[in-house]
Amino acid sequence: VPLLQAKWxxxxxxxxxxxxxxxxxxxxxxxxxxxxxxxxFSHNSNCQEKPSEYIAAIYELSALVxxxxxxxxxxxxxxxxxxxxxxxxxxxxxxxxxxxxDVVQLRRSALREQGNEAWLRSKQGKVMDFIDMxxxxxxxxxxxxSDEHLMAEVDTFMFEGHDTTASGISWVLYNLAxxxxxxxxxxxxxxxLMQEKETKEFEWDDLSQLPFTTMCIKESLRLHSxxxxxxxxxxxxxxxxxxxxxxxxxxxxxxxxGTHHNPAVWEDPEVYNPFRFDPxxxxxxxxxxxxxxxxxxxxxxxxxxxxxxxxVVIAMTLYRFxxxxxxxxxxxxKPELILRAENGLWLKVEALRTLQ
Length: 356
Prior knowledge:
By secondary structure, the protein is mainly α. It has one domain: CATH 1.10.630.10. 52% of the residues lie in helices and 10% in strands. Strands 1-9-6 form a three-stranded antiparallel β-sheet. The longest helix is centred in the middle third of the chain and has 32 residues. The two termini are 13 Å apart. The relative contact order is 0.14. It is found in: Endoplasmic reticulum membrane.
């Protein structure tokens, strides 16, 4: 986050009016990728300071997957991979796989040079990161993960861990820009917390002291769900309220966006109202009315990490900046693999405090 804010301050210093117009998705995606690589892979990518081929490939893959779903002949691999879009898809996959493979191989080389036992000793008193656990995992017979399985896990965590969180953060900032009264209330809460601290850095215990900011984040995740739908296979017959049966084995698409915008569940569902998530207003609500990270045994494995990152980024951003709507831009939802904004999510950003 400090790197992101430093970039914004540099841009503001270069313009006379001190206010800049930024595409939140562009900037926040680089920041979340940088954070994920550092927190889960202990890898310093420096991706915020230079163009990211990986981010560009992720954007292209998201668009191509949606296009493929909407064109029936391309559901056949033999047809799709001969098409122009199919070749673009393969090239983008190669970029993504090379990026994650380079991260994995760098750590594998370090492990090989030090040896597993020496590596584990060096980690004593520290938390092992995600890639350590994957590389050191063994089954009952002492076999580790194959390269194929390892890459599948890393690719999933890398993509899901940065892109969805970037969507969530960007839409929170957009909703607070549209509702300055809520943004000001969040900033008051954050500023009061920071004034009571000796340092200007957020710590774990601070996150529980931001109740209104958390309510604003949850309402944004409801209104603009980063993941709009999920697929689940029924493991038994499911009886619907009207008596119809979904047979065992059928794959169902569960619309998270539809659930979050259902007027039978949410009053005035298109209205941004963070007070929906006041504890008193949440008591009578179904536990499955709000499912931004899915629910049940196959819910998002990284939801705690994601919520923590969103809170920290929003708090640090609102403490030092004011975000405002750019009236010259029209913001329209664009559902792909995640919820994006058509032609970018542009906001005006004004500095309130310098970096300390």
